[in-house]
Amino acid sequence: MNLVLTRIDNRLIHGQVLEAWIPTIKANCIVVANNKIANSAMQKLLMEASVPKGIRVIIVSLDKLGEVLDSEELTNARILLLFATSGDALMANRQGVQYKKLNLGNMHAGAGKVKCSCTIALDEDDVENLMNLERAGIKISSQCVPSDKEVSWHKMLKITRN
């Protein structure tokens, strides 16, 4: 398994991922780990159709993620792993999926969420999930696109709370 980027992005596969991140990190495989998408044939079809030829797409439920990432067919793949939520990222980690860094790309605003940057809004559950991931040794930062400066998620919280 060669994870070249692990990212939380509510939109999962979209233009920013395909046009900015894939060429920069030279990924040749996108793995989307989300139970809702994995159980929707229509959403899977739409996501798979949006990806250019030459980029493999695997959409999997969280309980199958470890098995897929450890499979021999992905041994030489350069994988971009996408989660929709901090809860998905934490669940995967607790189920044994190992990653060292987590990029916060887009986490949409909603009820009970506080906007921390132009693309990141967090609620108390997100903060707790991210704290747990950090305690597990994962470095967490935000970087919307590769040309942006990487910002520690703690710095975003300080800005929000001041």
- Overall pLDDT score: 94
Oligomer: single chain
Low-confidence stretches: none
Class per helix and strand makeup: alpha/beta
As a percent range, the share of strand residues is: 15-25%
Strand order of the largest sheet: 3-2-4-1-5-8-9
Amino- and carboxy-terminal Cα gap: 41 Å
Question: What form results from the Cα inertia axes?
Answer: globular
Radius of gyration: 15 Å
Estimated helix fraction: 25-40%
The total count of helices amounts to: 7
Number of strands: 9
> What's the helix-strand series?
EHEHHEHEHEEEHEEH
> Biggest β-sheet, characterized?
7 strands, mixed
Topology (elements, then pairings):
Blueprint: E1 3-9, H1 15-25, E2 29-33, H2 35-38, H3 41-49, E3 56-60, H4 62-69, E4 79-83, H5 86-94, E5 101-106, E6 114-115, E7 121-122, H6 124-135, E8 139-142, E9 151-152, H7 153-161
Parallel strand pairs: 1-4, 1-5, 2-3, 2-4, 5-8
Antiparallel strand pairs: 6-7, 8-9
Helix pairs in contact: 5-6
Description:
With 162 residues, this protein is an alpha/beta fold. It has seven helices and nine strands. 38% of the residues lie in helices and 23% in strands. A seven-stranded mixed beta sheet has the order 3-2-4-1-5-8-9, with helices on both faces. A two-stranded antiparallel ribbon has the order 6-7.
